Amino acid sequence: MNHLLGSRHTIILAVLLVVATATATFAQQKVISDDTQECLDCHTTVTPGIVADWQKSRHSHTTPQDALALPEIERRMSTAQVDETLNAVVIGCAECHTMNADQHENDRFEHNGFAIHTVVSPSDCATCHPVEVEDFSHNLMSQAYANLMDNPVYKVMVDNTNGLATFNGASFHHEGADDMSNADSCLACHGTIVQVTGSETRETDMGEMNFPTLSNWPNAGVGRINPDGSKGACASCHMRHQFSIEVARKPYTCAECHKGPDVPAYKVYSVSVHGNIQKSVDKYWDYKAVPWTVGKDFTAPTCAACHVSELVNSDGEILAKRSHRMTDRLPWRIFGLPYAHPHPINADTTTIVNQGGLTLPTELTGEPVTSALISADEMAVRTTNMKNVCSGCHAQQWVDGHFARLDRSIETSNYMTLQATKVLSTAWEEGLAQGLPQGANPFDEAIEMKWIEQWLFYGNSVRFATAMGGVDYGVFADGRWTQAKNLQEMADYLKFLRAGQEKK
Fold this sequence. Notes:
By secondary structure, the chain is mostly helical. The chain has helices spanning about 1-30, 35-45, 50-55, 65-70, 85, 95, 120-125, 130-135, 145-150, 150-160, 180-185, 185-190, 245-250, 250-255, 265-270, 275-280, 305, 375-390, 395-430, 445-470, 480-504; strands spanning about 110, 115, 165, 170-175, 195-205, 205-215, 290-295, 310, 320, 330-335, 340. The strands form five sheets. It has a three-stranded mixed β-sheet with strand order 7-8-9, with helices on one face. Strands 1-2 form a two-stranded antiparallel ribbon. Strand 8 (about 310) and strand 9 (about 320) form a beta hairpin. It is globular, with a radius of gyration of 27 Å. The protein starts with a helix and ends with a helix. Keywords: Signal.
């Protein structure tokens, strides 16, 4: 009998324990706003992948008041306070997609009793992350659309690359690129202009509904022009709907746009010592820690460690402040232009004009447009900022030697581009190719395309290989060997053009 009573008591205690645990778990759950819950009631069925992704996010189980209770250095939001209506609820569908309705007069629409907008913009994210959004507004990435499409020089290159070429029996007629081709190529990374062009009625599982028609959509390019007029897309790096700092810190995110051959950053990183360590042992790393402690949370830098994240040493001393400008630790702009040069002062580079009247930060012969670029003093500050990152693992002599090599790499790669420019300029001067002196397209003939490859592919590869330690990309994999080979081919082609001219 006592045995049976003991068993009963055990069962009762077990049941009480389960109930207590369930109650405690329920109490620990964060409050979801009524508006977001209404969204979830439908979208759990309609878009289950989105909901499941959000449920894994920090947004889904952290309220602003929880986030602000952390020590400042550990916070992931930079505002000091939020509106009372947001403070005690998790950040869900309604908190983002109904945010700032007055700023979304161009793209908001009625949806089941709510005024919502499809495109959540940096202006919306600034409600909780104002410092990051302000930083990003000074980032070249935020101007990536205009810096490409509103620059007359680059626009010609875009059209020549993406537009159709029609053969007329002797040469090609190049047409301008269409919006879809641009959106599917350059602007996938640079960003499109997204506007509401109308509306459409669709029959859905929930009945007939009206939706806005968005131009140049979908897009998550870093310089996207949003319907509310803001620039950028936070989801370029913090993908919907987890918006994870872990994903943003991993190099695979940057590889979406920085893989080459024009921007071979990820390819170079993947064969570097740092990339090897990351791929081999990052299962032991903590990609979510804020701040990010060198040696404890990670043992080799990723793109984010060098360019974005707040880093501290084991004593909690700050090695690098968090920045979404991406240039606070970068003295040189090493890709995308004919010549590496000091970084522009302003993110909008369409206002830079060289002495030849071209919207370029250097002359065609390499001299920088100094009035538009950062000073030598500022370059020194930024170099020191980057060296501080390196100092978390490396001694000074190692670090200084690395940066001395980078300076030399910039010097030599620029020199090899200059030699290619001399060959091309000779072809133009002798009338063997039609380019800038003739007021013609400088990107559409064979010798001109080889000139582009000299700096857009091979010069970039050399510099990235030195900057990030992926040595073969500095030699035989689109590096110095390819630079030298391409230069010789340009000179040989010039001879071919001259021979053809003499026969006429």
